[in-house]
Amino acid sequence: MKTTIAFGLIWLVTSTCLGSVINVPADQPSIQAGINAANTGDMVVVAPGTYTENINFMGKAITVRSSGGSKVTIIDGGGVASVVKFSSGETLKSVLRGFTITHGFASFGGGGIEISSSSPTIMQNVIKNNSACNGDGIEVSFGSPLIASNTIVGNKQSGCSGGIGGGGISIGGAASARVIGNLIQNNNAGDGIGGGGISLFAAGTPVIMNNIFRGNTNVSTGGAISMYNFSDAIVVQNLFIQNSSPQGGAIYYLVASGGNGPTLVNNSFFGNIAGTGMGSAVFANDFDRPSHLYNNILKGVSGQTTVFCGGMNSSTPPQFFNNDVFAIGGLNYGGICSDQTGGNGNISSDPLFVKSPGNLQLQAGSPAINAGDNSAPDIPTKDKAGKPRIVGGTIDMGAFEF
After folding, report:
1. CATH number, residue 287
2. 150 located within any domain
């Protein structure tokens, strides 16, 4: 199971330190000096403080972590370059943990963190107030990093127009990035092609799981996530709350010929807005193969179509299994998608979230309880709250078990 592997790797790369410990500033005056002095397996431990630096891991399999956590340990890029670079073939054993990464700028991609042909581990950081043309918080280009348990907030496009977007994260180049358990909030991809939270552009087979997407935006497509070209993402057990874009308030995708498209499993959507009214939750453009949606709760907003299926590339619509698609004064489905209510376990009823918009757990009596499909792919063993995923014999729709 992909998710089990991912969290096992988190344990592996963060619990094993066979080398020396280099303390900053006690042993070395700066973080970069600590990296320069480190050898494979060493740990660079950084004391609380603000460090105005632009650091580069230089291909080293080392851990760079704070001793006091991200609230008190800040790496400030000074607005001159990416704050952190991984561009020398780093692997998951190159770990960045426990910092605030801020005030980075890149004229192309990766204002906060630039990852190029590398696959590091980025975890438990706050990545905020960075800017770039693409991947304003983090840019991934031809790499398979693990990006886990971070807060990625307030990053925005600057210094260009257009580009592939990604206010929080951009992922491009066929790979298998994993974005797991992050808060991705209030990022703005500007007029890039899409993805206020995450832009996937020929991104291969990334796993996007257990994240919260809230308040992300752009002026094109996919307030939370946009997916173009061969971006066959597994999107599992995420919350999409109050994101906005003209098309696809939460998610927009355009599948290329020969691509499988994304698979959406047990996600919950609430309060997302499509400026055109088309796809407040999802705007889907498939090609010669259908994408698939299983066990999702997609609650729309007043007067908008909740799921809109475009015919830009072909007349192939997605396939829907055991979803609750509920419009408020609008259409459940639009475009080339006929209304799926009543077929393949799909329903259309108010899911009865506990407290909208902050809490998307289910109240007693919710029609989404025991209404999912246990045979859906990529179901985690735990729900978004860390509780057993299947209770009472049948999985619930959405990110939380009742």
Report:
1. 2.160.20
2. yes
- Per residue in 207-241, pLDDT tens? 999 999 999 999 999 999 999 999 999 999 999 99
Distance between CA 358 and CA 86 in Å, rounded?
35
Residues 6+ apart with CB under 8 A from 24: 30, 31, 33, 34, 44, 45, 46, 47, 51
* Best CA proximity match to 32, nearest among 54, 48, 50, 16: 54
Q: How far is CA 172 from CA 205, 214, 217, in A?
A: 11, 22, 19
- CB atoms < 10 A from the CB of 375, how many? 10
pLDDT digits (tens, 9 = 90+) for 188-216: 999 999 999 999 999 999 999 999 999 99
Q: What's the CA gap between 66 and 305, in Å, rounded?
A: 46
Domain span including residue 287: 20-362
Does residue 383 lie in a domain region? no
Residue 161: inside a domain, yes or no?
yes
**Burial readout 325-361 (b: 16 or more C-beta within 10 A, e: otherwise):** bbbeeebbbbbbbeebbeeebbbbeebbbeeeeeebb
Does residue 384 belong to any structural domain of this protein? no
Number of domains in the chain: 1
